[in-house]
Request: fold
Amino acid sequence: MRKLVYYVGVSLDGYIAGPGHEIDFFPFGDEKQTAEYMKWLPAHYPETIPSFARDQFGIADAPNKRFDTLVMGRGTYVPGLDAGYTSPYAHLRQYVVSTTTPSDIDPAVTVVDSDPLGLVRELKKEEGGLDVWLCGGGRLAGALLPEIDELVIKSYPVLAGAGIRVVDGEFSPTLFDVTDRVSFDSGITVTSFTRR
Reply:
């Protein structure tokens, strides 16, 4: 069965974005440290790089390694939309969970206006294929917590103080085991967790 994997960047105090959905406060380090991280990222998770940026990483035609489908909330979708990208991950099947996004926004994007749990359960039952990437945001992660099988947390050495929490839902302690960890000189760590 396919897995739902929450792959996301997080501040030390548990925020995936600032109050206005900003993510530019996440530090990558100096030039050498940034280059090290930017070399690792497309080698391990090429499909998580938006379609419009794949050329600059030299992975325009790279096959997907881990995910072939993504699910995101409206707050995660809007920054790309504001920049003119109605299909930010054209190399993936894209689902946007939203009650306010028009259903005909782009033929490559499926807008789901209710029951994200039902959607994810159906996606996970599909035969073959790669895993499903939960791209964000925090409220959607809270709603989908019962179905999250794995976490890939990119932890950045910064405190945000306020913003959008990594999971914004009901109190529901859920245990995960560490399965892998990669550390970079910049202070960024990428930790993989599997649900117990």
Observations:
- Strands lie at 4-10, 15-17, 67-73, 93-97, 109-112, 131-136, 148-155, 164-165, 176-183, 189-195.
- The chain has a mean pLDDT of 96.
- The longest helix spans residues 31-44.
- The CA atoms of residues 115 and 168 lie 17 Å apart.
